[in-house]
Design a protein that fits this description.
The protein is 66% helix and 0% strand. It is mainly alpha-helical. The mean pLDDT is 91.
């Protein structure tokens, strides 16, 4: 059932990277000095992530998981503005964690994950999309930026 696969992939991928690992990196002492400004990127990232997961499910007829990808190239919703808004969303969530708890470990983790996302997109996902959706991908790639700029 697609809904269960979508939920499982959400929990296993952005759930672990964007929520579980950062929560484990927050030292107990940091919880006493939180910066509420971090809620802004965190909330924006969660909202964006959920919108992306919805588009993968509704428009793409698949999940965000590499083992169960969308059957159709998703170019609607947030994908009209960025080819990788899901990664942008997770990056915002991680920046929100780092601002909220102001720890070096969270900033380093956010930087590591963002660089890993970029490498994954360039080296794996874009070539896969070009092979899987050749004509659609070329048109989409020429219209929409990889990130937000």
């Amino acid at each position: 059932m697609l809904v269960l696969r979508a939920l499982a992939s959400f929990v296993l991928l952005p759930g672990v990277v964007g929520f579980l690992v950062p929560a484990l990196l927050v030292p107990p002492a940091s919880v006493q000095t939180i910066h509420l400004l971090g809620v802004v990127p965190f909330a924006a990232g969660v909202t964006l992530l959920l919108l992306c997961v919805r588009e993968f499910y509704v428009a793409g007829k698949g999940t965000l998981a590499p083992w169960d990808p969308p059957r159709h190239l998703v170019i609607s919703g947030p994908y009209r503005y960025s080819r990788n808004p899901m990664y942008v969303g997770v990056g915002l969530i991680l920046i929100g964690w780092a601002i909220t708890f102001e720890t070096r470990a969270l900033w380093l983790y956010a930087l590591f994950v963002i660089v890993a996302f970029h490498l994954r997109v360039v080296l794996a996902e874009e070539p896969w999309q070009a092979r899987t959706f050749p004509r659609e991908w070329d048109q989409y790639k020429s219209r929409v930026p990889r990130w937000l700029f």
